[in-house]
Design brief:
The protein has 277 residues and is of the alpha/beta class. The chain has 2 domains: 50 residues, Spermidine synthase, tetramerisation domain (Spermidine Synthase, Chain: A, domain 2), CATH 2.30.140.10; 218 residues, Vaccinia Virus protein VP39 (Rossmann fold). It is 29% helix and 33% strand.
């Protein structure tokens, strides 16, 4: 008998992976969690039936959501990751020698616990002494910590369930206050093929709050639509003005200084979504 995982990406689109083994299934207080071993993409983490990360292509997402903002900032020492309980973003943040402190604000401890057990290549940095794991409401944490972080990374799930509040003007305004005077926020902002209207809405939110707002892209095979967007809000630094010749080479599989520059060159239809008034 064959076992398949199928994600209903919208009412007209499904994505399936053949499963080798079911490693864990758990109903947490917030969502349904499963970690499966698949033939094509290795171990995968799903929440409420939605694929969050895979061993095979996770490096694209985690490298792009982290290294673009951290190499844009002149001297990132303190970083807050909201969501991202699998630990992939934390792993990438700690590749920057200037970073002294990383706070992971994850609402669901089961994500952290199971990622540590079943996804060690992704979660390997969560036990680093520079990492503080805060199990609780990331929105509440942001509101209670003013002028504290150089970079905030919103490594959220889709705008459903526990993550809904991470896609609101109030949250992004609170992040502005949470950032230092030269701080940067980056959020994953979904696929233009699936969430075009949401991307446009988020773009307007960012532009109303942050002096510099820029969008960039990467291709992630297992995410809906494959083409993925990230939105950066910056108080001071323009990511497109970074001297890519000054970016040091670090241990990455996708991100390079050249990719940093190229990622901001948007296809016309994507640029139209971000620029539409």
């Amino acid at each position: 008998m064959e076992l398949w995982f199928t994600e209903n990406q919208d009412e007209n689109l499904r994505f399936s992976l053949k499963v080798k083994e079911t490693l864990v299934v758990e109903k947490t207080p917030y969502q349904h969690l499963a970690i499966l071993d698949t033939y094509q993409f290795g171990k995968i983490l799903t929440l409420d039936g939605i694929l969050q990360t895979t061993e095979k292509d996770e490096f694209i997402y985690h490298e792009m959501i982290v290294h673009v903002p951290l190499f844009t900032h002149k001297n990132p020492k303190s970083v807050l990751v909201v969501g991202g309980g699998d630990g992939g973003s934390v792993r990438e943040v700690l590749k920057h020698p200037s970073v002294e402190r990383v706070v992971l604000a994850e609402i669901d401890e089961a994500v952290v616990r199971n990622s540590k057990k079943y996804l060690p290549t992704i979660s390997q940095a969560l036990d680093d002494p520079r990492v503080e794991i805060m199990i609780g409401d990331g929105i509440k944490y942001v509101n209670e910590h003013k002028n504290e972080f150089d970079v905030v990374i919103v490594d959220s799930t889709d705008p459903l369930g526990p993550a809904v509040g991470l896609f609101t003007p109030d949250f992004y305004k609170a992040v502005y206050e949470c950032l230092k005077e030269d701080g940067i926020i980056v959020a994953q902002t979904e696929s233009p093929f699936i969430y075009g209207k949401l991307i446009n809405k988020l773009s307007k939110m960012f532009k109303e709050i942050y002096p510099i707002t820029k969008a960039y892209i990467a291709t992630i095979p297992t995410y809906p639509g494959s083409l993925w967007t990230f939105t950066m809000g910056s108080k001071k630094y323009d990511p497109e003005e970074v001297d890519i010749n000054s970016i040091p080479r670090i241990d990455t599989k996708y991100y390079t200084p050249e990719i940093h520059k190229a990622a901001f060159v948007l296809p016309k239809f994507v640029k139209d979504i971000f620029d539409e008034v």
